[in-house]
Amino acid sequence: MLKILIIFLLFFSSILIYKNSNFNKVIPDVVEIPPEVQKSIANTKPTKQIYIPILLYHYVEYVKDAGDTIRKSLNIIPAVFDAEVKTLKDKGYTFLTPKDLADILDDKSKLPERSVILSFDDGYRDFYTDVFPILKKYNAKAITYIVPNFLNKPNNMDVWQLKEIVKSGLVEIGAHTMNHAYLVGLPKKRVEYEVIQSKKYLEKQLGIQVVSFAYPYGAFDNQAINVVKDAGFKTAVTTIHGNLVMDINRYFIYRLRPGARVGESLIKLIEEKSFPKPGSPNVY
Ligand SMILES: [Zn+2]
User: Which of 47, 227, 253, 256 lies most in the core, judged by the most C-beta atoms within 10 Å?
Assistant: First the structure.
């Protein structure tokens, strides 16, 4: 009897350990253009090139659980975010969103002399509680890339909160797939579902047009690019380091991680021209 009980306990605990290890597994963000995409653009000369820093944020909050190292590594505290926005405002930066960037790429509007885009991935609840008040304080525009199946969960925004931030006119809503899917290596039908459905869901729920996309984990390939383009998105952002935007990379736009930089070090990061150099991994 005891033997059976021990075997049962061992079996059960191994399942628990397996589940936990999977849950905590951190999938690293993509930092280089995949070779097949590099190849497909190798002979295309860009007709348009502009430099525009798109800052990438996840959490902006005072992390309550000191042991939550993943969350802490993705977080900056609200006071730092406030100081970053103030730095940009004081330097005369115009806050755009990816929709504005698409208009600039399509020659529908001009790029202001100093422009910046604040982008937030995953639609965490602190966007509403901590970020939104700071955006209102400085009248700064931003984009939040939403994962519909994350909505209405304790850690994420509710639909009513999204509706409120849409109403402010300060925040563009972008799509980030239905389930935060790693799009590389998936069958085309599944990629189409994740991409198209996330656009349709947000448009229906919020009564808006959704034209901007972010790849979860920054992961993309030629198939993902084509699905995103065909779905009617006008831009797509990655996690590759850089601030160079061209017509040929509008479906894999680079971004910058500001971390806790404020003042001159933030300005240096965004004004330094940067883009991935073929062959050299862009680790930063
Ligand atoms: Zn994400």
Answer: 253
The DSSP string of 184-227 is TTS-HHHHHHHHHHHHHHHHHHHTS---EEE-GGG---HHHHHH
- Cα of 260 to ligand 1 centre, how many Å? 19
What is the Cα–Cα distance from 238 to 234, expressed in whole angstroms? 14
DSSP assignment string, 151-194: TTSTTB--HHHHHHHHHTSSEEEEE--SS----TTS-HHHHHHH
Model confidence at 24: pLDDT above 90: no
Question: 250 and 256 in contact (C-beta within 8 Å)?
Answer: no
pLDDT at 283 over 60: no
Distance 121 CA to ligand 1 centre (A): 5
Ordered structural domains, the chain, with CATH: 31-271 (3.20.20.370)
Cα of 182 from ligand 1 centre, angstroms:
10
Contacts of 3 (CB under 8 A, 6+ apart): none
Cα–ligand 1 centroid distance for 180 (angstroms): 6
C-alpha of residue 179 to centroid of ligand 1, in Å: 10
Give dist(CA 20, CA 25) in Å, integer: 8
CA of 186 to the centre of ligand 1 (A): 17
Give backbone dihedrals phi and psi of 36, rounded to 5 degrees, phi first.
-65, -30
Please tell me the distance from the alpha carbon of residue 198 to that of residue 189, in angstroms, as a whole number. 14
